[in-house]
Amino acid sequence: MKKLILALSLTCTFTQLSVFADDFVPAEVINKNYDQLTNTSSRASRLEGINLSSYVVDKSGQVSDIEIVATVGQKKYQREVMDYVSKLNYKSAKLNGETIPVAKTITVSSQNLHINFSNDKASRGFFNDYEQASKLIDEKKYDEAKSRIDELENEHTKNTVEIVLLAWLKSQHSYFVQDWKSFDQHIYEAFLFRANLPDQIQKRVIKNALQWFISKQDYVRAYDAIDALGNIESITFTEQNKEQLLTQVNDIYKNSGDIKQQFSLASEQAVMPMMSKSEVKLESELPLSKVQLRCENKVVDYDTNTIDKIVISKNDLRCGLLIKSAQAQTITLKQSGESFL
Which CATH number fits domain 259-339: 3.40.50.1980, 2.30.130.10, 3.30.410.40, 2.60.120.730? Predict the structure, then answer.
């Protein structure tokens, strides 16, 4: 039996302003349909996957324009996830009494439930290879560690716990061999889907991700990481600890100048970097097929042929810029202007 486990982005994080010039009422989910995509099979599989989707809640409260913006594990579940998300219903968001379209995100874990055994933990085979690869990294035997990681991925990585543990292990190896592109991918995956990890590893993931987000000037995610440390029940993270970290990140953020980032786009695969400055410009060698500003209190479509500058106001909530290209390419995103987080 396969079960879809979901985590919805329904509220704003502490990084956003709590007082607005406009009267804004967020969209509220009213119908989850959690059981509609539960499937049973006589051929039980341990293969699972996790997907982060971004979507628009239109003026009537219906979900549309679903895009998968991050995925780990089996990609075969993506269509199922999109079908599920399309069945969500919302009470419409309102701005000054008028219904408006807004953006939401949702994490869906496609997990297989078995009668005869548990599939919610790492297998013995996975754990043995994981421990050996970790030891080889500690011993600075990076080539041997890479071989062990490849074996771990091909032979033992099946369920969501194993998938995210593998992302964390890959991030460690990438860090020590200074493969920053790979490190960026895997620490981001481990951070996004950290709920599948044991608390102590979650803590390590979050701390590593926090430093990386700061170095990349990804300040929205940096604030998310601070927030995440306070959500691990078994970890002591006091308000004083939180305030100290916030002060450090605030100082870096407020004194930051223009932000220049590069993103590798696969063909028709959406990316959605988060915005932390008031003006955004895109540079690309090839045409883009889609550019859309997705905020928790507004959605703006842009003509990819005439787009010049994207402007974000201080009242816009948690904005990401969804970008797609028909052809694989690397794009440059430049953020400048006012700091508003």
Answer: 2.60.120.730
